[in-house]
Amino acid sequence: MNLEEKQLKKEYMYKGKIINLRRDEALLPNGKTAIREIVEHNGGVCVVPLDDDGNVYMVQQFRYPYFKVVTEIPAGKLEKGEDPLEAGKRELKEEVGAIAQNYVFLGELYPSPGYCGEIIHMYLATGLSFCDTDPDEDEFLEPVKIPLKTAVDMVLKNELADSKTQAAILKAYLLMEKGE
Amino acid sequence: MNLEEKQLKKEYMYKGKIINLRRDEALLPNGKTAIREIVEHNGGVCVVPLDDDGNVYMVQQFRYPYFKVVTEIPAGKLEKGEDPLEAGKRELKEEVGAIAQNYVFLGELYPSPGYCGEIIHMYLATGLSFCDTDPDEDEFLEPVKIPLKTAVDMVLKNELADSKTQAAILKAYLLMEKGE
Fold this sequence. Notes:
Order of helices and strands of chain A: EEEEEEEEHEEEHH
Strand content of chain A: 35-45%
Radius of gyration of chain A: 18 Å
Largest sheet of chain A: 4 strands, antiparallel
CATH class of the largest domain in chain A: Alpha Beta
Oligomer: homodimer
Distance between the termini of chain A: 38 Å
Helix content of chain A: 10-25%
Shape of chain A: globular
CATH architecture of the largest domain in chain A: Alpha-Beta Complex
């Protein structure tokens, strides 16, 4: 079955600081047309920082779209063309105050593929050493340190809602279990 | 540490079919102000359909923001005020052609909390019986049936990028393992 769509028209409705919004006209496989609303984003990175004692480091921050504090693994936006791993190292240092000896790629994450084009690159970081945090100006973070197993239980109990945090924590746990 | 922000101004830049885009001015904990770009969405639902032989049912579809075919568990948007479980039952029938006897809530998912307000409600569905699929007009889906364990391996090998699919498949697997 042919699933492919074609771009017939492309129009920017908004160009912003973090996201752009496009409203395209697409040609469907059945020859009809449809409107597609697309959020453009440079992409992101997130890191599961795991220390030698099996603890994970996360951060709590106010997330304006939900108007509440959300607990997440350290993460950030990519600058245009930035290497995801370099961005991950930067965010780990800024938000947790840590430097890691080893990085394992945990895969890509598409947050909401129906309308959003963001790709989040996920990493597991081990061999941690600690320095001072260096958050962005106007970034307010509260650190959280918990055992990886507890973080897994929190995901299973619906206590960590962020998608990248759920996926990366569970993947890190299952990969560690498999001894990889 | 106070992390809370306050809404000072609210302005819609776009009101669309699936998403709206707001550009707010927020008051930060340090007394400064910042612009917040927010994608509004009614919310979504997704279902891990697991049959008595341990197979999971997924669908492949063209995802316009990535301009490629993506494999995902069945899912859909909520109508305004719609009960997530009822929406999950509808999507399971429409996309997979299945009815489930048992539903287990797998938690909420925040796809990209920095700018997006969508909440996706996740369910595990068991006790499946099958009827005809009934996809939305202009929805083109290719079904996929694979063992849950294979789906888990695909998540770990970066072969399933969709965030709700990664989180819900791994959660379903870990909960089954714990015998819940």
